[in-house]
Design goal:
By secondary structure, the protein is mainly alpha-helical. The chain has 5 domains: 111 residues, Tetratricopeptide repeat domain (Serine Threonine Protein Phosphatase 5, Tetratricopeptide repeat, Alpha Horseshoe), CATH 1.25.40.10; 117 residues, no CATH class; 99 residues, Serine Threonine Protein Phosphatase 5, Tetratricopeptide repeat (Alpha Horseshoe), CATH 1.25.40; 123 residues, Alpha-Beta Plaits (2-Layer Sandwich), CATH 3.30.70; 44 residues. It contains 26 helices and 6 strands. The strands form 2 sheets. The chain has a 4-stranded antiparallel beta sheet, sandwiched between helices. A two-stranded antiparallel sheet has the order 1-2. A hairpin with a 2-residue loop joins strand 4 and strand 5. The radius of gyration is 38 Å and the shape is elongated. The termini are far apart. 24% of the residues are buried.
Length: 617
């Protein structure tokens, strides 16, 4: 039999140079006979018996990776794929294929780590002080026992006898002759970490090279002739074996704990979607999403999690659980998009001969033309028509952007959240999540900026959406004025969408708010005979605004709040003259004749300068 032959070859001492190949053959035999546990043992033996055959080594690691992948043990599969890559020629065809497989595991490994680590930290953070101490005491006692056992074994192997164990955990200090003690290596992670720290304290950072002990190789102040001596510090006093060392690392700040909770909950949601869509591991998907809901997460995650559980249980033919979540959504979230989908699952639009991409491109042109209401309405139709295809997330993100332009910040935030959670593995879903995490916090600021902090300013005129003729006329008048004053290189006029009922005509390129208001005042006056045929008076109210505040107004749709701010009030024609009249009236009440005279002279100079500015804004 093949198995007996392979075992005979394994026992033959002359075959030791070929053990890696023999063990690989034994592993293949057991894998082909569905004895996976034995196969794993022999693949690992083949790896440990590595001679010079890197191709065989890569096959061993790749096979183990695929076995772990088939068992949905993705983190271990990723580690084996990493090892596979180190034994392949970089950029070879096989290397690129394995690299792609490994990259497909990036997200699941990342989110499993976040979920696991944050879960552990949050669980420990909720413990009482006594429970924390008991937990870490058990951990450090186990760590200490393993370290002692490993060092005892190492001491015996180096023929130093059991007596050396007493010194192995001692602190190392510099100066004086060497104390008794042998050379050995700690194989536990804790003692290795401790040894690395102590090495750097003594020798500093040194390259791995010949003559590393020479004085010129040092990066600290220790003398090369000084040797390590052993200080008989009890094991219990070493930091790595002190429970308090670990207790102090557990956060207690509510903000930190909240951040850990948010990250953990989002990780569980992402894992649910990844297992559902990328790997078709529906049991794992339901496990992660059910666990998420048990944590009572942020509101933005609750409804998408319930909807996906409804879909997954349907795929698993678990109609009881599917109906449970369907009823939950319809009863508790009846106004949501998900409820609408559940109520009308078979809604279809008339078919169109054009491709989805053609429809998307046409809709994008409508978006560029500021036809946001049309974009939103048609996107909904196309999303239903092309449901289940890759084009849907593109329509969703375009719709979210149109919603931002039409309805402002809060509506945009909600729309982005929907796209990121509904299509997390699509490029558009990832883009939406990136925008939600990075751009939304920046856009949330809606406090108006003081005018003296602005560098560029605009002049605004507001119109109803249906005033097309008036909008066209004022645009022509403004362009004529800019041309008359030869400001074409600096200023320009645009017609900007504000909301479904309001359009803004905007003059861009002014240097100050005073300049913007001055231009508005000049254009509101009856024009002199010399320019009557070129410039028509514009008697409509106007607003001067900085570019920074205009951006805030467009994002948050709060132009009315800007208007109501006394410092930012819209200017009516003749307002400057009225202010001058008020100042003159107040001067007549001044009890100090000298002060009155000085103020009158100052006012005359300001008026003269103001008239000059009105002529040439």
């Amino acid at each position: 039999m093949l198995l007996e032959l392979l075992h005979d070859l394994e026992k033959d001492r002359e075959n030791r140079p070929f053990l890696d190949k023999i063990y690989n053959a034994l592993a293949d035999y057991h894998r082909n006979t569905t004895r996976d546990s034995l196969a794993i043992v022999y693949y690992n033996k083949s790896i440990q018996s590595f001679k010079e055959d890197q191709t065989l080594q890569s096959i061993n690691y790749q096979t183990l990776a695929e076995m772990k992948f088939d068992k949905a043990e993705y983190k271990q599969a990723g580690a084996y794929y990493d090892s596979t890559l180190t034994n392949l020629a970089e950029n070879s065809k096989k290397w690129r294929r394995i690299k792609k497989k490994r990259e497909n595991l990036d997200d699941v490994i990342k989110y499993e780590d976040i979920a696991s680590i944050n879960d552990s930290i949050l669980r420990i953070a909720k413990m009482s002080d006594s429970d924390k101490l008991a937990f870490f005491k058990a951990y450090t006692d186990d760590l200490k026992a393993k370290a002692i056992a490993d060092s005892t074994a190492a001491a015996k192997l180096s023929n130093k006898g059991p007596g050396i164990v007493n010194n192995e955990f001692a602190k190392k200090s510099v100066g004086g002759p060497s104390a008794s003690g042998g050379k050995f290596y700690f194989y536990t992670p804790a003692t290795v970490a401790y040894g690395k720290v102590e090495f750097r304290k003594l020798w500093g950072d040194r390259k791995l090279e010949d003559n590393w002990r020479r004085s010129e190789k040092k990066s600290n102040g220790f003398d090369q002739d000084q040797e390590i001596i052993m200080d008989t510090t009890p094991i219990a006093e070493l930091e790595i074996f002190n429970p308090q060392t670990y207790i102090e690392e557990i956060p207690s700040d509510p903000k930190v704990l909240d951040s850990l909770t948010i990250d953990r909950d989002f990780a569980y949601y992402q894992l649910g979607l990844i297992y559902k869509e990328k790997f078709k591991e529906y049991d794992l998907a339901t496990n992660r999403l059910e666990k998420l809901l048990a944590y009572n997460p942020q509101e933005r995650l609750v409804l998408p999690a319930k909807y996906n559980l409804y879909k997954i249980y349907g795929l698993l033919e678990n109609q009881t659980s599917a109906q449970k979540y369907k009823d939950d959504i319809l009863n508790n979230h009846s106004d949501s998009r998900y409820a609408e989908i559940l109520r009308n699952p078979n809604t279809q639009l008339a078919s169109d001969a054009s491709s989805p991409e053609f429809k998307y491109n046409a809709l994008y042109k409508a978006f560029e033309a500021s036809q946001y209401a049309e974009v939103i309405k048609k996107s909904d139709g196309y999303i239903t028509l092309y449901n289940g295809t890759d084009i849907v997330p593109k329509f969703e993100l375009l719709k979210a952007t149109a919603i931002a332009r039409q309805d402002g910040f809060q509506a945009y935030k909600k729309a982005l959240n929907f796209v990121s959670l509904t299509y997390p593995n699509s490029p558009q879903g990832k883009r939406a999540q990136q925008l939600y995490s990075t751009t939304i916090p920046r856009l949330e600021f809606k406090q108006f900026v003081p005018d003296n902090q602005g560098a560029n300013f605009k002049l605004l005129y507001t119109f109803d959406q249906n005033q097309d003729d008036e909008i066209s006329d004022i645009k022509k008048q403004l362009n004529a004025a800019i041309e008359y004053y030869t400001y074409q290189e600096k200023m320009f006029v645009s017609v900007d969408y504000y909301n479904p009922s309001t359009t803004l005509v905007v003059v861009h390129g002014l240097d100050s708010k005073l300049g913007a208001q001055g231009l508005g005042e000049v254009l509101s006056k009856p024009q002199k005979q010399a320019r009557k045929d070129k410039i028509t008076s514009i008697t409509k109210d106007f607003v001067g605004i900085s570019s920074e505040n205009y951006q805030i107004v467009q994002i948050h749709k709060n132009l009315e709040a800007y208007r109501l701010n006394p410092k930012q009030a819209p200017v009516k024609p003749e307002s400057a003259a009225k202010k001058t009249a008020v100042k003159k009236t107040n001067l007549n009440k001044s009890p100090d004749p000298d002060k009155k005279k000085a103020l009158i002279e100052k006012l005359k100079r300001q008026k003269k300068a103001g008239n000059s500015k009105k002529e040439t804004p």
